[in-house]
Write a structure and sequence with these properties.
By secondary structure, the chain is mainly α. It contains two helices and no strands. The termini are far apart.
């Protein structure tokens, strides 16, 4: 399934979301390991999507 995220700062916001999900997953690893695994998987999926984007264009 695909999703469209509209973020004001573009990939920078998406990168922050990935980082926040990974930090949250680490914090819940002992108390809610299934939730932590879900958040880690979600972060990895978003990261893979970011990696698949074409590089930004630079203006000359």
């Amino acid at each position: 399934m695909a999703a469209l995220l509209k973020l004001p700062s573009g990939t920078r916001d998406a990168t922050e979301l990935v980082e926040a999900l990974l930090v949250a997953a680490q914090a819940r690893e002992d108390t809610a390991p299934e939730l932590a695994a879900r958040w880690r998987h979600l972060a990895n999926s978003i990261g893979d999507g970011l990696d698949a984007l074409p590089p930004p264009r630079t203006s000359d």
